[in-house]
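Can you give me the bound-state structure? Components:
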Amino acid sequence: MSERMRTPERAAAQLRQLYGGYGYAPFKVQKFERYDLYAEFRRFLESEQILTFTDTDGRLMAMKPDVTLSIVKDTLGGEMRKVFYHENVYREQRRGEGFKEIPQMGLECIGDLDAYSVGEVVMLAARSLEAISSRCILDVSHLGVVSGVLEGRVMTDEQRAAIFAAVAAKNTPALKQLCPDESLAEVLTALVSLYGPLGETLEKARIIPLPQKSRNALAQLEMLNRQLEIYGLDFVNLDFSVVNDVDYYDDVVFRGFVEGAAQGVLSGGRYDRLLQRMGKSGGAIGFAVYLDRLERVEQTGAEFDADVLILCPSDSDAALAAETAEAYRRSGKTVRVQRETPEQLRFRQIVKIENGEVTVC
Amino acid sequence: MLNVALPKGRLGEKAYSIMAQAGYECPSLLEPNRKLTFENPETGVRYFWAKPSDVPIYVERGVADVGIAGKDILLEYEPEVYELLDLNIGKCRMCVAGPADFRDDQSRTLRVATKFPHIAKTYYSARGRDISIIKLNGSIEIAPILGLSDVIVDIVETGSTLLENDLAPLQEIFPISARFIANTVSYKFQYQEIRTMAEKLAALV
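Here's the bound-state model for the whole set.
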Protein backbone atom coordinates (compact mmCIF):
# COMPACT_ATOMS: atom_id res chain seq x y z
CA MET A 1 0.00 0.00 0.00
CA SER A 2 1.36 3.42 -0.82
CA GLU A 3 2.27 5.57 2.19
CA ARG A 4 -0.24 8.42 2.38
CA MET A 5 0.73 9.87 5.78
CA ARG A 6 3.31 12.63 5.56
CA THR A 7 5.81 13.39 8.32
CA PRO A 8 3.77 16.18 10.04
CA GLU A 9 0.66 13.96 10.32
CA ARG A 10 2.59 10.89 11.35
CA ALA A 11 4.51 12.92 13.94
CA ALA A 12 1.30 14.43 15.35
CA ALA A 13 -0.22 10.98 15.84
CA GLN A 14 2.92 9.63 17.51
CA LEU A 15 3.36 12.65 19.76
CA ARG A 16 -0.22 12.45 20.95
CA GLN A 17 0.40 8.88 22.02
CA LEU A 18 3.72 9.77 23.62
CA TYR A 19 2.33 12.64 25.73
CA GLY A 20 -0.75 10.66 26.71
CA GLY A 21 1.50 7.88 27.95
CA TYR A 22 3.00 10.24 30.54
CA GLY A 23 -0.37 11.38 31.82
CA TYR A 24 -0.62 14.63 29.86
CA ALA A 25 -4.22 15.40 28.96
CA PRO A 26 -5.26 16.79 25.58
CA PHE A 27 -6.42 20.38 25.81
CA LYS A 28 -8.55 22.22 23.27
CA VAL A 29 -8.01 25.94 23.16
CA GLN A 30 -10.46 28.41 21.65
CA LYS A 31 -9.43 29.79 18.27
CA PHE A 32 -9.86 33.46 19.23
CA GLU A 33 -8.50 35.30 22.20
CA ARG A 34 -8.92 38.84 23.47
CA TYR A 35 -6.27 41.05 21.92
CA ASP A 36 -5.37 42.61 25.30
CA LEU A 37 -3.67 39.41 26.38
CA TYR A 38 -1.11 39.66 23.58
CA ALA A 39 -0.71 43.41 23.87
CA GLU A 40 0.36 42.92 27.47
CA PHE A 41 2.71 40.01 26.89
CA ARG A 42 3.84 40.88 23.39
CA ARG A 43 7.45 39.95 23.92
CA PHE A 44 6.52 36.44 24.99
CA LEU A 45 5.39 35.84 21.41
CA GLU A 46 7.68 34.67 18.67
CA SER A 47 6.47 37.28 16.23
CA GLU A 48 4.90 40.55 17.26
CA GLN A 49 2.49 40.59 14.33
CA ILE A 50 -1.03 39.71 15.45
CA LEU A 51 -4.03 39.05 13.25
CA THR A 52 -6.90 40.98 14.79
CA PHE A 53 -10.60 41.51 14.13
CA THR A 54 -13.53 43.12 15.94
CA ASP A 55 -16.00 40.77 17.57
CA THR A 56 -19.78 41.31 17.30
CA ASP A 57 -19.75 43.05 20.68
CA GLY A 58 -17.07 45.50 19.56
CA ARG A 59 -14.18 43.93 21.44
CA LEU A 60 -10.85 43.64 19.66
CA MET A 61 -10.03 39.97 19.23
CA ALA A 62 -7.01 38.10 17.87
CA MET A 63 -6.53 34.87 16.01
CA LYS A 64 -4.22 33.00 18.40
CA PRO A 65 -0.55 33.61 17.58
CA ASP A 66 0.42 31.35 20.49
CA VAL A 67 -1.19 28.72 22.69
CA THR A 68 0.88 28.88 25.88
CA LEU A 69 -0.50 32.27 26.96
CA SER A 70 -4.07 31.00 26.65
CA ILE A 71 -3.31 27.94 28.74
CA VAL A 72 -1.43 29.85 31.43
CA LYS A 73 -4.10 32.55 31.60
CA ASP A 74 -6.73 29.95 32.53
CA THR A 75 -4.58 28.18 35.08
CA LEU A 76 -5.34 28.84 38.73
CA GLY A 77 -2.35 29.24 41.00
CA GLY A 78 -1.23 26.18 42.91
CA GLU A 79 -3.01 23.60 40.77
CA MET A 80 -0.76 21.17 38.86
CA ARG A 81 -1.61 20.93 35.18
CA LYS A 82 -0.08 18.59 32.65
CA VAL A 83 -1.60 19.21 29.25
CA PHE A 84 -0.78 18.97 25.57
CA TYR A 85 -2.39 20.60 22.55
CA HIS A 86 -2.51 20.33 18.77
CA GLU A 87 -3.68 23.66 17.37
CA ASN A 88 -3.26 26.06 14.51
CA VAL A 89 -1.70 29.41 15.31
CA TYR A 90 -1.60 32.51 13.13
CA ARG A 91 1.49 34.60 12.67
CA GLU A 92 4.04 35.89 10.25
CA GLN A 93 6.80 33.38 9.80
CA ARG A 94 9.33 35.58 8.02
CA ARG A 95 9.32 39.29 7.47
CA GLY A 96 7.14 40.25 4.50
CA GLU A 97 5.58 36.83 4.04
CA GLY A 98 2.20 37.77 5.48
CA PHE A 99 0.16 35.79 8.00
CA LYS A 100 0.23 32.04 7.88
CA GLU A 101 -1.73 29.30 9.55
CA ILE A 102 0.81 27.20 11.37
CA PRO A 103 0.03 23.80 12.85
CA GLN A 104 1.69 23.44 16.21
CA MET A 105 1.81 20.76 18.84
CA GLY A 106 2.93 21.48 22.34
CA LEU A 107 3.02 20.45 25.93
CA GLU A 108 2.88 22.43 29.17
CA CYS A 109 3.48 21.47 32.78
CA ILE A 110 2.30 24.20 35.14
CA GLY A 111 2.09 24.31 38.92
CA ASP A 112 4.29 23.42 41.85
CA LEU A 113 7.17 22.36 39.58
CA ASP A 114 9.63 19.83 40.96
CA ALA A 115 12.97 18.73 39.55
CA TYR A 116 11.40 15.50 38.34
CA SER A 117 8.82 17.31 36.16
CA VAL A 118 11.50 19.52 34.61
CA GLY A 119 13.47 16.41 33.68
CA GLU A 120 10.32 14.73 32.37
CA VAL A 121 9.42 17.63 30.09
CA VAL A 122 12.97 17.88 28.67
CA MET A 123 12.93 14.11 28.15
CA LEU A 124 9.56 14.36 26.34
CA ALA A 125 11.00 17.09 24.11
CA ALA A 126 13.87 14.75 23.24
CA ARG A 127 11.54 11.80 22.66
CA SER A 128 9.38 14.03 20.43
CA LEU A 129 12.38 14.65 18.19
CA GLU A 130 13.17 10.95 18.15
CA ALA A 131 9.62 10.25 16.97
CA ILE A 132 10.13 12.65 14.05
CA SER A 133 13.54 11.49 12.89
CA SER A 134 16.33 9.20 14.03
CA ARG A 135 18.81 11.98 13.21
CA CYS A 136 17.95 14.56 15.82
CA ILE A 137 19.59 16.79 18.41
CA LEU A 138 18.24 18.57 21.47
CA ASP A 139 20.27 21.61 22.60
CA VAL A 140 19.87 22.52 26.24
CA SER A 141 20.95 25.60 28.15
CA HIS A 142 20.17 27.44 31.36
CA LEU A 143 19.66 31.18 31.00
CA GLY A 144 20.90 31.67 34.54
CA VAL A 145 24.43 30.99 33.33
CA VAL A 146 24.66 33.95 30.94
CA SER A 147 22.39 36.26 32.96
CA GLY A 148 24.45 35.42 36.08
CA VAL A 149 27.57 36.63 34.29
CA LEU A 150 25.84 39.89 33.34
CA GLU A 151 24.27 40.46 36.76
CA GLY A 152 25.43 43.55 38.58
CA ARG A 153 27.01 45.04 35.44
CA VAL A 154 25.98 48.57 34.70
CA MET A 155 24.58 48.64 31.19
CA THR A 156 21.56 49.88 29.31
CA ASP A 157 18.71 47.58 28.28
CA GLU A 158 19.82 47.97 24.65
CA GLN A 159 23.36 46.87 25.49
CA ARG A 160 22.07 43.86 27.38
CA ALA A 161 19.75 42.94 24.49
CA ALA A 162 22.61 43.34 22.02
CA ILE A 163 24.81 41.04 24.12
CA PHE A 164 22.07 38.39 24.26
CA ALA A 165 21.61 38.68 20.49
CA ALA A 166 25.35 38.17 19.96
CA VAL A 167 25.26 35.15 22.29
CA ALA A 168 22.34 33.69 20.28
CA ALA A 169 24.23 34.14 16.99
CA LYS A 170 27.50 32.78 18.49
CA ASN A 171 28.88 36.09 17.28
CA THR A 172 32.13 36.26 19.24
CA PRO A 173 33.57 39.26 17.33
CA ALA A 174 30.48 41.27 18.36
CA LEU A 175 30.86 40.17 22.00
CA LYS A 176 34.34 41.66 22.04
CA GLN A 177 32.97 44.98 20.84
CA LEU A 178 29.87 45.05 23.02
CA CYS A 179 31.28 44.03 26.38
CA PRO A 180 32.47 46.89 28.58
CA ASP A 181 35.52 44.95 29.74
CA GLU A 182 37.72 42.23 28.36
CA SER A 183 37.20 39.69 31.13
CA LEU A 184 33.43 39.71 30.52
CA ALA A 185 33.96 39.22 26.77
CA GLU A 186 36.34 36.33 27.49
CA VAL A 187 33.88 34.55 29.77
CA LEU A 188 30.96 34.96 27.32
CA THR A 189 33.14 33.88 24.38
CA ALA A 190 34.22 30.80 26.31
CA LEU A 191 30.58 29.97 27.09
CA VAL A 192 29.21 30.32 23.53
CA SER A 193 32.18 28.45 22.06
CA LEU A 194 31.30 25.35 24.08
CA TYR A 195 29.21 22.79 22.27
CA GLY A 196 28.81 19.05 22.75
CA PRO A 197 27.17 16.26 24.73
CA LEU A 198 25.55 17.65 27.89
CA GLY A 199 27.54 15.64 30.48
CA GLU A 200 31.01 16.11 28.95
CA THR A 201 30.46 19.76 28.09
CA LEU A 202 29.28 20.59 31.61
CA GLU A 203 32.69 19.36 32.82
CA LYS A 204 34.35 21.86 30.48
CA ALA A 205 32.03 24.66 31.59
CA ARG A 206 33.09 24.12 35.19
CA ILE A 207 36.62 25.33 34.37
CA ILE A 208 35.33 28.77 33.28
CA PRO A 209 35.45 31.35 36.11
CA LEU A 210 31.78 32.07 36.84
CA PRO A 211 29.84 33.92 39.55
CA GLN A 212 27.71 32.03 42.07
CA LYS A 213 24.40 32.48 40.24
CA SER A 214 25.89 30.92 37.10
CA ARG A 215 27.34 28.06 39.16
CA ASN A 216 23.91 27.35 40.65
CA ALA A 217 22.49 27.22 37.13
CA LEU A 218 25.21 24.76 36.10
CA ALA A 219 24.34 22.62 39.13
CA GLN A 220 20.73 22.48 37.95
CA LEU A 221 21.87 21.38 34.50
CA GLU A 222 23.95 18.66 36.15
CA MET A 223 20.87 17.40 37.97
CA LEU A 224 18.97 17.45 34.68
CA ASN A 225 21.77 15.53 33.01
CA ARG A 226 21.63 12.77 35.61
CA GLN A 227 17.92 12.30 34.84
CA LEU A 228 18.40 12.35 31.09
CA GLU A 229 21.12 9.70 31.41
CA ILE A 230 18.60 7.42 33.11
CA TYR A 231 16.21 7.89 30.19
CA GLY A 232 19.09 6.86 27.91
CA LEU A 233 19.06 9.97 25.74
CA ASP A 234 22.42 10.39 24.04
CA PHE A 235 21.60 13.22 21.64
CA VAL A 236 21.25 16.03 24.15
CA ASN A 237 23.88 18.75 23.78
CA LEU A 238 24.82 21.74 25.86
CA ASP A 239 24.69 25.04 23.96
CA PHE A 240 24.71 28.36 25.80
CA SER A 241 23.64 30.17 22.63
CA VAL A 242 20.08 28.91 23.17
CA VAL A 243 18.43 32.09 24.38
CA ASN A 244 14.81 33.07 25.03
CA ASP A 245 13.42 36.42 26.17
CA VAL A 246 14.82 36.95 29.67
CA ASP A 247 11.71 38.85 30.76
CA TYR A 248 9.86 35.56 30.75
CA TYR A 249 12.52 32.86 30.92
CA ASP A 250 15.27 32.54 33.47
CA ASP A 251 15.92 28.85 33.71
CA VAL A 252 16.28 25.74 31.54
CA VAL A 253 15.71 26.44 27.82
CA PHE A 254 16.02 24.08 24.88
CA ARG A 255 15.78 23.81 21.08
CA GLY A 256 15.28 20.73 18.92
CA PHE A 257 16.66 20.02 15.48
CA VAL A 258 16.19 17.22 12.98
CA GLU A 259 18.28 16.63 9.91
CA GLY A 260 16.52 17.83 6.78
CA ALA A 261 14.67 20.74 8.38
CA ALA A 262 16.60 23.97 7.82
CA GLN A 263 15.47 25.52 11.10
CA GLY A 264 14.82 24.27 14.59
CA VAL A 265 11.59 22.27 14.87
CA LEU A 266 11.10 22.43 18.63
CA SER A 267 11.52 25.20 21.16
CA GLY A 268 10.82 25.38 24.85
CA GLY A 269 11.88 26.26 28.32
CA ARG A 270 10.89 27.10 31.84
CA TYR A 271 8.89 30.34 32.03
CA ASP A 272 8.16 30.98 35.71
CA ARG A 273 8.49 34.70 35.11
CA LEU A 274 5.46 34.75 32.85
CA LEU A 275 3.40 33.30 35.70
CA GLN A 276 4.78 35.89 38.10
CA ARG A 277 3.87 38.65 35.64
CA MET A 278 0.36 37.27 35.52
CA GLY A 279 0.24 37.31 39.30
CA LYS A 280 0.24 33.54 39.64
CA SER A 281 2.38 31.39 41.91
CA GLY A 282 4.30 28.28 40.94
CA GLY A 283 6.41 27.39 37.97
CA ALA A 284 5.88 26.32 34.39
CA ILE A 285 7.80 24.55 31.67
CA GLY A 286 6.73 23.56 28.19
CA PHE A 287 7.62 23.34 24.54
CA ALA A 288 6.13 23.57 21.07
CA VAL A 289 6.80 21.42 18.00
CA TYR A 290 6.47 23.31 14.71
CA LEU A 291 4.76 20.70 12.55
CA ASP A 292 4.88 22.86 9.40
CA ARG A 293 8.67 22.70 9.43
CA LEU A 294 8.55 18.91 9.14
CA GLU A 295 7.14 18.90 5.64
CA ARG A 296 10.57 18.83 4.05
CA VAL A 297 12.13 16.31 6.37
CA GLU A 298 11.38 13.51 3.94
CA GLN A 299 13.90 13.60 1.13
CA THR A 300 11.36 12.98 -1.61
CA GLY A 301 7.76 13.95 -2.05
CA ALA A 302 5.11 11.31 -2.82
CA GLU A 303 5.96 9.70 -6.14
CA PHE A 304 2.43 8.80 -7.20
CA ASP A 305 -0.96 10.34 -6.53
CA ALA A 306 -2.61 6.90 -6.43
CA ASP A 307 -1.51 3.36 -7.21
CA VAL A 308 -4.10 2.65 -9.87
CA LEU A 309 -6.01 4.83 -12.30
CA ILE A 310 -9.12 3.21 -13.81
CA LEU A 311 -10.26 4.84 -17.02
CA CYS A 312 -13.92 4.29 -17.70
CA PRO A 313 -15.19 6.54 -20.50
CA SER A 314 -18.62 4.96 -20.86
CA ASP A 315 -21.46 5.10 -18.31
CA SER A 316 -22.55 1.60 -19.24
CA ASP A 317 -19.35 0.23 -17.67
CA ALA A 318 -19.91 1.98 -14.32
CA ALA A 319 -20.76 -1.21 -12.42
CA LEU A 320 -17.71 -3.01 -13.79
CA ALA A 321 -15.54 -0.02 -12.86
CA ALA A 322 -16.86 -0.15 -9.30
CA GLU A 323 -16.20 -3.87 -9.08
CA THR A 324 -12.66 -3.56 -10.48
CA ALA A 325 -11.82 -0.62 -8.21
CA GLU A 326 -13.07 -2.50 -5.13
CA ALA A 327 -10.97 -5.50 -6.05
CA TYR A 328 -7.82 -3.34 -6.25
CA ARG A 329 -8.66 -1.62 -2.96
CA ARG A 330 -9.09 -4.97 -1.23
CA SER A 331 -5.54 -5.82 -2.25
CA GLY A 332 -4.44 -2.66 -0.45
CA LYS A 333 -4.02 -0.35 -3.44
CA THR A 334 -5.27 3.22 -3.71
CA VAL A 335 -7.54 3.68 -6.73
CA ARG A 336 -8.93 6.64 -8.64
CA VAL A 337 -11.66 6.22 -11.27
CA GLN A 338 -12.51 8.72 -13.99
CA ARG A 339 -13.23 9.17 -17.68
CA GLU A 340 -9.84 10.28 -18.95
CA THR A 341 -6.24 10.51 -17.78
CA PRO A 342 -5.86 13.62 -15.63
CA GLU A 343 -2.94 15.84 -16.53
CA GLN A 344 -0.27 16.44 -13.90
CA LEU A 345 -1.21 13.44 -11.77
CA ARG A 346 0.86 10.29 -11.68
CA PHE A 347 -0.18 6.71 -11.19
CA ARG A 348 1.71 3.49 -10.83
CA GLN A 349 -0.65 1.61 -13.10
CA ILE A 350 -3.43 2.49 -15.55
CA VAL A 351 -6.40 0.19 -16.23
CA LYS A 352 -8.90 0.79 -19.02
CA ILE A 353 -12.50 -0.39 -19.05
CA GLU A 354 -14.26 -0.38 -22.42
CA ASN A 355 -17.30 -2.29 -23.68
CA GLY A 356 -17.35 -4.58 -20.66
CA GLU A 357 -13.64 -5.43 -20.92
CA VAL A 358 -10.84 -4.68 -18.47
CA THR A 359 -7.38 -4.04 -20.00
CA VAL A 360 -4.26 -3.37 -17.96
CA CYS A 361 -2.12 -0.85 -19.87
CA MET B 1 30.70 17.51 2.40
CA LEU B 2 30.04 21.16 3.21
CA ASN B 3 28.07 23.38 0.82
CA VAL B 4 29.58 26.86 0.70
CA ALA B 5 27.76 29.90 -0.70
CA LEU B 6 30.12 32.58 -2.02
CA PRO B 7 29.03 36.10 -2.98
CA LYS B 8 29.60 36.83 -6.67
CA GLY B 9 32.12 39.56 -7.39
CA ARG B 10 35.31 40.93 -5.87
CA LEU B 11 34.39 40.05 -2.29
CA GLY B 12 33.66 36.45 -3.27
CA GLU B 13 37.02 36.12 -5.02
CA LYS B 14 38.82 37.46 -1.96
CA ALA B 15 36.78 35.15 0.25
CA TYR B 16 37.64 32.16 -1.93
CA SER B 17 41.33 32.94 -1.77
CA ILE B 18 41.14 32.84 2.04
CA MET B 19 39.22 29.57 1.85
CA ALA B 20 41.89 28.18 -0.48
CA GLN B 21 44.68 29.28 1.87
CA ALA B 22 42.83 27.55 4.70
CA GLY B 23 43.06 24.33 2.70
CA TYR B 24 39.68 24.30 1.00
CA GLU B 25 40.79 24.89 -2.56
CA CYS B 26 38.74 23.92 -5.55
CA PRO B 27 40.66 24.80 -8.74
CA SER B 28 37.67 24.27 -11.06
CA LEU B 29 36.05 27.32 -9.45
CA LEU B 30 38.42 29.69 -11.21
CA GLU B 31 38.22 28.04 -14.63
CA PRO B 32 36.16 29.96 -17.13
CA ASN B 33 33.05 27.82 -17.65
CA ARG B 34 29.33 27.88 -17.17
CA LYS B 35 29.11 25.43 -14.33
CA LEU B 36 27.10 26.52 -11.31
CA THR B 37 28.51 24.32 -8.58
CA PHE B 38 32.12 23.33 -7.98
CA GLU B 39 33.09 20.34 -5.93
CA ASN B 40 36.33 19.10 -4.48
CA PRO B 41 35.75 15.73 -2.81
CA GLU B 42 39.32 15.70 -1.43
CA THR B 43 38.80 18.81 0.70
CA GLY B 44 35.13 18.05 1.28
CA VAL B 45 33.64 21.27 -0.06
CA ARG B 46 31.13 22.21 -2.72
CA TYR B 47 31.08 25.88 -3.69
CA PHE B 48 28.51 27.88 -5.55
CA TRP B 49 28.26 31.55 -6.46
CA ALA B 50 25.21 33.53 -5.40
CA LYS B 51 24.10 37.13 -5.61
CA PRO B 52 25.64 38.67 -2.45
CA SER B 53 22.26 39.58 -0.95
CA ASP B 54 21.04 36.01 -1.51
CA VAL B 55 23.86 34.30 0.42
CA PRO B 56 22.11 34.56 3.83
CA ILE B 57 18.92 33.15 2.27
CA TYR B 58 20.75 30.07 1.01
CA VAL B 59 22.39 29.62 4.40
CA GLU B 60 19.27 30.27 6.49
CA ARG B 61 17.31 27.76 4.42
CA GLY B 62 20.06 25.20 4.75
CA VAL B 63 20.93 24.76 1.06
CA ALA B 64 24.36 26.08 1.95
CA ASP B 65 25.80 24.89 5.25
CA VAL B 66 28.08 27.91 5.47
CA GLY B 67 28.59 31.08 3.50
CA ILE B 68 30.27 34.43 3.34
CA ALA B 69 28.12 37.55 3.58
CA GLY B 70 28.63 41.24 4.27
CA LYS B 71 27.48 42.61 7.63
CA ASP B 72 25.25 45.06 5.69
CA ILE B 73 23.24 42.19 4.22
CA LEU B 74 23.03 40.45 7.60
CA LEU B 75 21.68 43.57 9.30
CA GLU B 76 19.22 44.26 6.50
CA TYR B 77 17.68 40.78 6.34
CA GLU B 78 18.37 39.59 9.91
CA PRO B 79 18.55 35.94 8.92
CA GLU B 80 18.55 33.29 11.64
CA VAL B 81 22.13 32.07 11.20
CA TYR B 82 25.26 31.76 13.33
CA GLU B 83 27.76 34.52 12.68
CA LEU B 84 30.96 32.70 13.47
CA LEU B 85 33.78 34.91 12.27
CA ASP B 86 34.70 38.39 11.08
CA LEU B 87 36.88 37.81 8.01
CA ASN B 88 38.14 41.40 8.02
CA ILE B 89 37.77 41.70 4.26
CA GLY B 90 35.41 43.81 2.17
CA LYS B 91 35.68 46.56 4.75
CA CYS B 92 33.52 49.62 4.27
CA ARG B 93 30.93 51.67 6.18
CA MET B 94 27.16 52.04 6.16
CA CYS B 95 26.60 55.78 6.03
CA VAL B 96 24.05 58.49 5.70
CA ALA B 97 25.28 60.63 2.81
CA GLY B 98 24.02 63.73 1.11
CA PRO B 99 25.09 67.10 -0.26
CA ALA B 100 28.26 68.21 1.57
CA ASP B 101 26.50 71.31 2.86
CA PHE B 102 23.34 69.43 3.87
CA ARG B 103 21.33 70.91 6.70
CA ASP B 104 18.60 68.68 8.15
CA ASP B 105 15.39 70.68 8.41
CA GLN B 106 13.86 68.79 11.31
CA SER B 107 10.41 70.27 10.78
CA ARG B 108 9.96 68.21 7.61
CA THR B 109 9.84 64.50 6.87
CA LEU B 110 13.29 63.43 5.74
CA ARG B 111 13.30 61.65 2.39
CA VAL B 112 15.81 58.79 2.40
CA ALA B 113 16.76 56.80 -0.70
CA THR B 114 18.35 53.43 -0.04
CA LYS B 115 18.85 49.82 -0.98
CA PHE B 116 18.62 49.02 2.74
CA PRO B 117 15.14 50.08 3.93
CA HIS B 118 15.24 48.04 7.13
CA ILE B 119 18.59 49.48 8.24
CA ALA B 120 17.47 53.03 7.39
CA LYS B 121 14.17 52.61 9.22
CA THR B 122 15.84 51.18 12.33
CA TYR B 123 18.49 53.91 12.40
CA TYR B 124 16.04 56.79 12.15
CA SER B 125 13.31 55.33 14.35
CA ALA B 126 15.88 54.96 17.16
CA ARG B 127 16.34 58.74 16.83
CA GLY B 128 12.62 59.44 16.58
CA ARG B 129 13.09 61.09 13.18
CA ASP B 130 10.17 60.89 10.77
CA ILE B 131 11.35 59.66 7.39
CA SER B 132 9.98 58.55 4.09
CA ILE B 133 11.86 55.66 2.54
CA ILE B 134 12.50 55.53 -1.18
CA LYS B 135 13.62 52.01 -2.03
CA LEU B 136 15.99 51.94 -4.99
CA ASN B 137 17.93 49.03 -6.43
CA GLY B 138 21.05 50.81 -7.67
CA SER B 139 22.71 54.16 -8.48
CA ILE B 140 21.53 55.49 -5.15
CA GLU B 141 23.83 58.53 -5.37
CA ILE B 142 21.72 60.05 -8.11
CA ALA B 143 18.68 60.41 -5.83
CA PRO B 144 19.77 63.53 -3.87
CA ILE B 145 21.35 65.06 -6.96
CA LEU B 146 18.06 64.94 -8.84
CA GLY B 147 16.07 65.89 -5.77
CA LEU B 148 14.37 62.52 -5.39
CA SER B 149 15.58 62.36 -1.80
CA ASP B 150 17.30 64.55 0.79
CA VAL B 151 19.87 61.94 1.83
CA ILE B 152 20.84 58.37 1.06
CA VAL B 153 21.71 55.44 3.30
CA ASP B 154 24.32 53.39 1.51
CA ILE B 155 27.65 51.66 1.65
CA VAL B 156 30.67 53.93 1.44
CA GLU B 157 33.99 52.35 0.54
CA THR B 158 36.43 55.11 -0.40
CA GLY B 159 33.89 57.90 -0.77
CA SER B 160 35.22 58.82 -4.21
CA THR B 161 31.86 58.28 -6.00
CA LEU B 162 30.27 60.57 -3.45
CA LEU B 163 32.99 63.18 -3.83
CA GLU B 164 32.74 63.25 -7.63
CA ASN B 165 29.06 64.07 -7.28
CA ASP B 166 29.49 66.76 -4.61
CA LEU B 167 28.14 64.43 -1.94
CA ALA B 168 29.72 63.54 1.38
CA PRO B 169 29.22 60.99 4.12
CA LEU B 170 27.25 62.75 6.87
CA GLN B 171 26.99 60.09 9.60
CA GLU B 172 28.46 56.62 9.94
CA ILE B 173 25.81 54.07 10.93
CA PHE B 174 28.12 51.07 11.43
CA PRO B 175 31.31 49.57 9.98
CA ILE B 176 30.96 46.66 7.57
CA SER B 177 33.10 43.64 6.84
CA ALA B 178 32.52 40.14 5.50
CA ARG B 179 31.35 37.48 7.95
CA PHE B 180 31.58 33.70 7.93
CA ILE B 181 28.05 32.45 8.66
CA ALA B 182 26.58 28.99 9.25
CA ASN B 183 23.15 27.41 9.13
CA THR B 184 22.03 26.68 12.68
CA VAL B 185 20.98 23.10 11.93
CA SER B 186 24.05 22.23 9.84
CA TYR B 187 26.14 23.54 12.72
CA LYS B 188 24.70 20.78 14.92
CA PHE B 189 24.86 17.91 12.47
CA GLN B 190 28.21 18.81 10.87
CA TYR B 191 29.74 20.32 13.94
CA GLN B 192 33.29 19.02 13.46
CA GLU B 193 33.56 20.05 9.79
CA ILE B 194 32.17 23.55 10.37
CA ARG B 195 34.20 24.10 13.55
CA THR B 196 37.41 23.00 11.81
CA MET B 197 36.69 25.31 8.88
CA ALA B 198 35.97 28.24 11.22
CA GLU B 199 39.19 27.65 13.14
CA LYS B 200 41.33 27.36 10.02
CA LEU B 201 39.84 30.60 8.72
CA ALA B 202 40.27 32.30 12.09
CA ALA B 203 43.97 31.50 11.99
CA LEU B 204 44.28 33.49 8.75
CA VAL B 205 42.38 36.66 9.62
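A couple of observations. Chain B has eight helices and eleven strands. Chain B touches chain A through 21 residues (CB under 8 Å).
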